Amino acid sequence: MKIAVVGATGLVGQKMLQILEERNFPVSELIPVASESSLGKTVRFRGKEYTVVSATEAIERKPAIALFSAGGSTSLEWAPKFAEAGITVIDNSSAWRMDPTKKLVVPEVNGHVLSAEDKIIANPNCSTIQLVLVLKPLHEALHIRRVVVSTYQSVTGTGKKAVDQLQNERKGVAGAMAYPYPIDLNLIPQIDIFMDNGYTKEEMKMTNETRKIMGDDSIKLTATCVRVPVMGGHSESVNIEFENSFDLQQIRSLLEKAPGVKVIDDPAHLQYPMPLLHASDSDDTFVGRIRYDETRENTLNCWIVSDNLRKGAATNAVQIAEYITSKGFVK
Asked: I need a surface site. Which of 14, 145, 148, 331 has the fewest CB within 10 A?
């Protein structure tokens, strides 16, 4: 199966190549695509070098699937052109997520909504993916009324320039700034631009995407998203109010059975999920610090951690590709 990776030289694009290789996806021919400045460069996949080509050339070579991670403007311009050529696009940008004609998919949560007719499939926001993996089994059993989430998001979510800024600051070296402020020894309570309602675009993504993926507009969700000087994954402090009563063992049992979720929750032995020690380079989403909110009835507190470049981006996209392949939607 011919596979194109659009944005193959970026952080997520490189991670997509790694995940395709790790999961032994049946790639007969890799077609790496990037911007004009990267044409002619090479990327390595399964021990071979592949030359980066233009989007036009990639379409001419007719891959079955194109994994996009090249930004919203690129996706808006090129995803329809790939789709018109019969190529199934799995897009990691925000361009198509809230388009009512496009599916927004986390395979473990709502893969069943996909069909052979879906030629542009949206990959959700990284912080949303790890959240809905935990919310889905709890919602099915107890019905969620309201979610309050505060995120602690890795600089890797911004890209290489942000990683370089953090590393330069730690070395005391001047360099290009991805953020308007220092990030080392600091927190920045802004991810993406501010909207008219005072929330950032990232915060509204979490609200709107969660409802779409869960298929339930009645879920009330409010978020505060914060950039932290961390590499290895995103973390979330989550408060969940249910319609129904519950006990903690029921919650743990539901989460232990949930696909893609691992419970690390043993306060007596100081066991709880951390981005560096658990999430980094893992495809699982980890949950711990599971406890009652003692100020409200039927309400739970928990802590969710996941590698934002893997399950939050590249792995989820590859899992979508695996799903549509297994169903015979692409061949």
From this structure: 331
Query: Which long-range contacts (C-beta less than 8 Å, at least 24 apart) are formed by 250-253?
Result: 250/141, 251/138, 251/290, 251/300, 252/290
Respond yes or no: is residue 234 known to be catalytic: yes
The one catalytic residue among 139, 225, 234, 278: 234
Quick one: which H or E segment has residue 166?
Answer: helix 160-171
Give the DSSP H or E segment for 206: helix 201-214
Q: How far apart are CA 76 and CA 93, in angstroms?
A: 9
- Annotation: CATH topology of 2-124+313-326: Rossmann fold (3.40.50)
Helix segments in 23-125, DSSP class H: 55-60, 72-84, 107-110
3-class DSSP state of 144: strand
Tokens standing for residue 244: 């129904």
> What was the pLDDT predicted at 307?
98
The full set of domain ranges for the chain reads 2-124+313-326, 127-308
Q: pLDDT over 70 for what percent of the chain?
A: 100
Active site residue 112: no
Class of domain 127-308: alpha beta
Tokens of 111: 């893969």
| pTM tops 0.85, yes or no | yes
pLDDT tens readout for residues 42-95? 999 999 999 999 999 999 999 999 999 998 999 999 999 999 999 999 999 999
How many other CB atoms sit within 10 Å of the CB of residue 163? 17
Amino acid at 237: S
In 275-315, beta strands by DSSP E: 285-292, 299-306
CA angle 144, 150, 155 (to 5 degrees): 130
